[in-house]
């Protein structure tokens, strides 16, 4: 098949080279964006009297027909045509003849693919933002419905202090608030129209870049033609943001995996979101959470992939950049599918409040509050810390919790301890004393939920 660029070539392209250099199997996903950009470009060319209005009308009609053909699956792909741009241009010529050859006036595939990627990512970021919002709404619903559930808080995966389960879940709300901010901020840098930069140096034609930007919904146009065709920062930033979001989902997955185990038994994941074993009939495995945790590695890999592709490239376009679409598409697919599955799964998680509470009553989670009690009685904190350690050691020997000791036993460690120690060591009181801004008191958490609800609305 004759190439559009073969005028200076004396030999046909080797078939293995065609297969090796073809990207159509990947960039076919960009066909809607490519056609949208081509329609705007054709309309601008007619407006600027570079082509006629009739030619532009033919081009637009043909492009819309091609969009339907591809969308309905009635479109033949060929490695010989390399990419989505040449597939569409070749098919357009078959449909409308010579006018199709004028569409590429004042542009290059270099600024064309940059445009397609930006159009694509603009739409995908908006969808990701909507999915994150739905995910957060489910987090809020769980937090509201379980506001009185008390659980152990952990450091080093060791029990540390009692907290509200809702407070723990609201930590993930905050993580995804930051994710939304990152995606929203990055959208500004994606929203830059590169068309008109041509191959690298701009064009001699009297084009209207501002007009094309308006047609395509861009708020800015690129300021430097060389930067416009070689810039993939917006892709790196998107995948970086997606990596952070997937890491957040992976951390939640790890907790759900632990909490749903018999050792913790804090939650039950719906049977609809677990799978069984081929040999052990009693097993219900948290495969959805495990797969999200595992797929996070692919997104991290995509970030390394795109950074490695771009890091050594001189300006401007290099064929290496053909490989930028694979990490983009894989990241989009994994992030959206992971958010979607979590949106569904969160609605069917059962919280085992009694088990959480029983776990929080064990293993001296009130030790810090015992030390604080002594400190408020006038004992220097380091001394109070030491006394508390002795109390814990004594209680361990007696196979008791601190709050199960008698007042006389407490007096052996400090005469400052009075009857009020027992009220101080109740889990509900321990939690509700955490009134510092951002703390786990019930009032704080209720305020945080209300504020969060207002923010996402």
How would you characterize the overall build of this protein?
The chain is mainly α and 457 residues long. It is built from 19 helices and six strands. The strands form three sheets. A two-stranded antiparallel sheet has the order 1-2. It has a two-stranded parallel ribbon with strand order 3-4. It has a two-stranded antiparallel sheet with strand order 5-6. A hairpin with a 2-residue loop joins strand 1 (150-155) and strand 2.
Q: What's the topology here?
A:
Layout: H1 15-21, H2 24-27, H3 31-47, H4 53-71, H5 84-96, H6 109-145, E1 150-155, E2 158-164, H7 165-190, E3 192-193, H8 209-216, E4 220-221, H9 225-230, H10 233-259, E5 267-268, H11 287-311, H12 325-346, E6 350-351, H13 353-360, H14 367-376, H15 381-397, H16 407-411, H17 421-424, H18 427-432, H19 442-456
Parallel strand pairs: 3-4
Antiparallel strand pairs: 1-2, 5-6
Low-confidence stretches: none
Q: Helical segment tally? A: 19
Rg, Å, rounded: 31 Å
Q: Kindly estimate the percentage of residues that lie in beta strands according to DSSP.
A: under 5%
Separation, N- and C-terminal Cα atoms: 55 Å
Major beta-sheet overview: 2 strands, antiparallel
Number of strands: 6
Instruction: Name the shape in a single word.
Output: elongated
């Amino acid at each position: 098949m004759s190439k559009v660029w073969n005028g200076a070539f004396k030999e046909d392209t080797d078939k293995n080279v065609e297969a090796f250099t073809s990207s159509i199997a990947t960039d076919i996903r960009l066909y809607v964006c490519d056609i949208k950009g081509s329609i705007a470009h054709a309309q601008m060319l007619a407006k600027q009297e570079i082509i006629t209005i009739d030619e532009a009308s033919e081009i637009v009609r043909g492009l819309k027909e091609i969009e339907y053909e591809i969308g309905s699956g009635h479109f033949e792909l060929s490695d010989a045509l390399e990419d989505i741009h040449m597939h569409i241009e070749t098919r357009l010529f078959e449909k409308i003849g010579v006018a199709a050859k004028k569409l590429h006036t004042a542009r290059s595939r270099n600024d064309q693919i940059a445009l397609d990627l930006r159009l694509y990512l603009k739409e995908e970021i908006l969808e990701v933002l909507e999915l994150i919002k739905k995910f957060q709404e489910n987090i809020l619903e769980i937090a509201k419905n379980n506001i009185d559930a008390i659980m152990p808080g952990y450091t080093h995966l060791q029990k540390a202090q009692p907290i509200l389960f809702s407070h723990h879940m609201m930590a993930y709300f905050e993580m995804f608030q930051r994710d939304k901010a990152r995606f929203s901020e990055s959208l500004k840098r994606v929203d830059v129209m590169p068309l008109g930069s041509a191959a690298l140096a701009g064009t001699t034609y009297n084009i209207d870049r501002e007009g094309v930007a308006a047609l395509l919904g861009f708020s800015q146009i690129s300021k430097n033609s060389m930067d416009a065709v070689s810039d993939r920062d917006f892709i790196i930033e998107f995948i970086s943001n997606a990596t952070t979001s997937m890491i957040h989902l992976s951390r939640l997955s790890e907790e759900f995996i632990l909490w749903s185990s018999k050792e913790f038994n804090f939650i039950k994941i719906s049977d609809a979101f677990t799978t069984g074993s081929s040999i052990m009939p009693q097993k219900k495995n948290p495969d959805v959470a495990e797969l999200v945790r595992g797929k996070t590695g692919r997104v991290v890999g995509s970030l390394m992939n795109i950074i490695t592709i771009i890091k050594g490239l001189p300006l401007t376009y290099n064929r290496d950049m053909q490989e930028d679409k694979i990490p983009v598409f894989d990241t989009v697919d994994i992030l959206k599918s992971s958010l979607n599955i979590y949106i569904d799964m969160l609605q069917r998680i059962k919280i085992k409040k009694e088990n959480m509470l029983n776990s929080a009553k064990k293993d001296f989670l009130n030790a810090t509050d015992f030390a604080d009690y002594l400190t408020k009685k006038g004992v220097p904190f380091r001394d109070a810390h030491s006394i508390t350690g002795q109390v814990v050691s004594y209680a361990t020997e007696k196979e008791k919790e601190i709050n199960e000791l008698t007042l006389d036993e407490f007096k052996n460690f400090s005469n400052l301890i009075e009857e009020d120690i027992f009220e101080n060591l109740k889990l509900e009181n321990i939690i509700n004393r955490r009134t510092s801004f951002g703390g786990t008191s019930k009032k704080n958490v209720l305020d945080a939920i209300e504020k969060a609800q207002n923010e996402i609305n």
